[in-house]
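Board work, copied verbatim: Sporulation related protein
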Amino acid sequence: MASDPNAWYYCLTHQTVERGVGCRGGDRMGPYPDEATAQRALELARERTKAEDKADKEWGKR
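↓ predict structure ↓
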């Protein structure tokens, strides 16, 4: 899949935010709608993982 030239990404290799074409896709998170959201990529991933772990535990209690 080609990178969106207007979208923002977070590069895991360089730990920086990139816009459009940048490092290879496997090294990036995104796309994100804006630079500020891309900057929070790792925080957002942690939050989503925590929420999914909680949902998994609740599902297992059924």
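Residues 8-57 form one domain.
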